[in-house]
């Protein structure tokens, strides 16, 4: 079938709006009519990454309607509303058997190669194949995706808000609820108030934290954090950030610190801001050329836990519907995360906005398809 899509043909260039070919799904795949897709900073990273195979269709935050399914698919059917997960899991490896589906490696070889799980593509034009992004390629009217990427959501769920659940929303929420395991009455500091950090704040609030400290270098983001549940804010450009956090927590430090920034200095500050016996979770991706340094003196006496978390330890089939239902029950804020909606023809304007340092990076521009 012919579909309209935004195609990346050059590294760092503009996306080209084109009519391209999409093949039918195989037995373990689903054809989804994309109704909304968020434009995430990770898409910009892919656009500027010379290792991204060309040409490719980007996009990994998507929601839509199942159009057709492969012969082996039982959990969704045509007409179902779904949110798409860019990290499908195999259900058979040792990690999946332990319930740690976020650690499954099944998808990553094909993902980095720009294919679907079987090592081939469903996208093409007259010159040959076009690659997929994150196994989804949601910057298009339709997408063929792995069956395990399709998570059914309630029919009442609006598509623009639903699309955000697949990445930043679930990562942040799950980082607080799953990875950190925030407890009622505890104190929490969240570093990096962007699309992930703002939802870590929501997760901490839902978990019942008594004090939630938003930490960022942008005063605008800190003000937004208050609307999502932060009880205190600290501008991390101040040299006494750790002292400020300790003062808020009666000089003890926080029970849980969550670093969503991807900045090693922020992660160090998170560690220093946490009390004895605390849990420090790093969900942001560090620059691989950097090193994380922590004070060695008395380390064994602190009893702290430092751990990394991929996707916030999310379990999509459990957490996506849970977040959707909390939104419908007015317990989770998603409307406020949709900065504006645009058409696919305006997609390059969304990418240009990432370079405007005066713009907040808390919400998302969402592409909608009528």
From TrEMBL:
The positions making up the signal sequence are none
GO BP annotations listed: formaldehyde catabolic process
Q: Which domain of life is it from?
A: Bacteria
Q: Would you name any one GO CC term?
A: cytosol
Name the Pfam families on file: ADH_N, ADH_zinc_N
The UniProt record lists the keyword Hydrolase: no
Similarity field:
Belongs to the zinc-containing alcohol dehydrogenase family.
- This protein is called what? Zinc-binding alcohol dehydrogenase
What is the source species?
Kurthia sibirica
